[in-house]
Amino acid sequence: xxxxxxxxxxxxxxxxxxxxxxxxxxxxxxxxxxxxxxxxxxxxxxxxxxxxxxxxxxxxxxxxxxxxxxxxxxxxxxxxxxxxxxxxxxxxxxxxxxxxxxxxxxxxxxxxxxxxxxxxxxxxxxxxxxxxxxxxxxxxxxxxxxxxxxxxxxxxxxxxxxxxxxxxxxxxxxxxxxxxxxxxxxxxxxxxxxxxxxxxxxxxxxxxxxxxxxxxxxxxxxxxxxxxxxxxxxxxxxxxxxxxxxxxxxxxxxxxxxxxxxxxxxxxxxxxxxxxxxxxxxxxxxxxxxxxxxxxxxxxxxxxx
Length: 305
Fold this sequence. Notes:
Elements: E1 5-6, H1 8-15, H2 19-27, E2 34-36, E3 39-43, H3 44-69, E4 72-77, H4 81-93, E5 98-103, H5 106-114, E6 120-123, E7 126-127, E8 132-133, H6 135-141, E9 147-161, E10 182-185, H7 190-202, E11 215-216, H8 219-227, E12 233-237, H9 238-244, E13 247-261, H10 262-265, H11 268-278, H12 280-286, E14 300-303
Parallel strand pairs: 4-5, 4-6, 10-11, 10-12
Antiparallel strand pairs: 1-3, 2-3, 6-13, 7-8, 9-12, 9-13, 9-14
């Protein structure tokens, strides 16, 4: 027998299991093997790879189970001050629930969900061809993943400028004028994709925007860059403009959605989050930060099986 091949007895000893269990794994097609001259053979290198893969899969499953048992969920994707307030309010009302979130940008949030790194993705990805938010990206990126798209709220996004708007920035075209310094968002963010679409519609190239290649990772960072004088304009939510007392020039109203698996949708932290979002108390709490529309909060907009 070549050293890199094992028979059923040898692989049973190698795995420290009974030989009958080896045959059971063969019947269930769960172990790498081949049949030569009527005997089952097991390449040692493939057995080692199989062990490592099974160990990683087991760790991932154990991690997910422990998180859910503890009432904790991981999230990634876009960000919004109202989302931060929502998560904080959930913790106040339900100290047993935790939602840990990373501001990676909408596209990276979907990718992390697909790879099983997170339980939730926050997204606001505009698709110019269909005019829809998020659903076309979910169809493309999450093929084979049992995802649902759940609306959290609709929000206004627009250009932020210094108080009083001293440079008279009233639209995307004004950003191409000499002396106007823009602060962009990172690649893969919903705002960056929206901005590129708006530039194209105006016939403006990125090279015509001073600061196009300078980016930050959150809406609040955009607002702080404008407030500090490091930039003359950037795109962010109306909530940031209200928080920092900046000029706000509306551009569009967009869907801010939560993407997750069918099973996670029914987890208690998620259902409690939706209940909090719909509550009159929460709506009143965020009212000073702009016209957020909670009409469709918790509504399933799309399901992918």
